[in-house]
Amino acid sequence: MFIRSLISLFRVLKSNDSPKQLAWGVALGTMLGLIPVNSLFNVFVLVALYFFNVNMGLALLTAIVYKMLGVILSGFFHIIGLYLLTDVNFLYPFWTALYNLPIVTWTRFYNTVVLGSFLVSLLLLIPHYFLAKKLLVFYQNNVRNMLVAQIKKYKITEILQGSNIFKLVLKVLNWKNKLKG
Fold it and tell me: Which pTM was predicted?
């Protein structure tokens, strides 16, 4: 299972998607993972994933990782949400107006964990994008070529590349890519 996930990750990183598409996938996946599932905010993030040309695989993988982190950080999110909902007096009219709007209440902003996680994920959106983009460009320019060179050094690689099964697999993969493109 772990090896299959690792292979999927390398396949996504090897894809022809630009670093911008991959980085937005990471950034929106972070939001999707940190915000609790039962909030309309997640629907907004899913719509953004659908309409913007981002890598869905990397977004979902990032969401899974951050979902686990979100569970651990829910106490921190609660503190932030509680502070904003109860201790910042000048926001009371704003919260009341939002609560009285018909669809906005489905976002569950009045839940301290939802509000705190939404705010933190919104604050992390742009830094995650730029950090992911920088790391992905570094990976695509340096690490990927180094890994390919290391793998090609092994004798088993030469044997596999010369086999008919390997050639058949390459044909099938190229055929799949032509169907997608």
Answer: 0.71
Write down the H helix ranges in 35-163.
40-51, 56-72, 74-82, 92-100, 112-138, 144-152, 155-162
Contact 27, 102 (CB under 8 A): no
Give yes or no for a contact between 66 and 30, defined as CB atoms under 8 angstroms apart.
yes
Residue whose C-alpha is closest to residue 128's, from 28, 34, 18:
28
Distance of alpha carbon 159 from alpha carbon 56, whole angstroms: 35
Angle between helices 56-72 and 2-14 (to 10 degrees): 130
Cβ neighbour number for residue 109 with a 10 Å cutoff:
21
**CA 75, CA 77: separation in Å to the nearest integer?**
5
Residue whose pair of structure tokens reads 């599932």 in the numeric block: 37
User: What letter would DSSP give residue 153?
Assistant: T
Mean pLDDT of 97-124: 90
Calpha distance 28→171 (Å, rounded): 34
Q: Distance between the two ends of the chain, CA-based, in angstroms?
A: 28
The pLDDT of 1-6, averaged and rounded, is 52
